[in-house]
């Protein structure tokens, strides 16, 4: 039996034969690709796909620079201990050779300053003794009428020149040792030059002492010669060169990223 005005009870309009109505018939699932009746897709809001774990960047929302897109990509602060340093410089491995050379140079400088003070004091005592001797000779000459010459001068020019040279060397050793301890390559080069001159001077002093028949003078120069040789070898080592090419360690700055959340509609 046919119903010319649609099926009874549904109030539908009559449809031509062979054509489907706009709404889906009861009992049939909705066709894929077509919106459900009564729920049209809202224009301007594209459907969001399934969000993977980690909340990636949403369309239309630019990712701020300096923050990883995935919170799981936040770097571990403990990994920075083995990271390469800026400028390609590698860790110095302790720098024991450079530190030892710097300390020896400072010790030599302090010993040189002490020697200068002792030399000046000895020169002052010698000058006082000479003045006392001249005064005694003058009194004897006036009392007994002797013709003993009392004009005996103390030639201190050579001693003062030696004191000035020793002071310059001590200051240079102190400067080179301080610079080397502060990772300055100029301090290492300065100590190499000073130690080279020290080795040459020590050998010359030993030769002169042995040639003059005073072996004790040559024996006293041996400890100083060994120290400057040690400084020269330590400053020329590869460890000292690496130590001077590395800047003091600084704490790395870590930018912690804030987790992103999906937009709410």
Automatic annotation (TrEMBL):
Low complexity compositional bias, start-end: 1-26, 41-89
Transmembrane segments: 95-118, 159-182, 189-211, 217-236
Biased composition (Pro residues): 27-40
Stretches the record annotates as Disordered: 1-94
Domain of life according to the entry: Bacteria
Assigned keywords, A-Z: Membrane, Transmembrane, Transmembrane helix
Protein name: Uncharacterized protein
Lineage of origin: Bacteria, Bacillati, Actinomycetota, Actinomycetes, Mycobacteriales
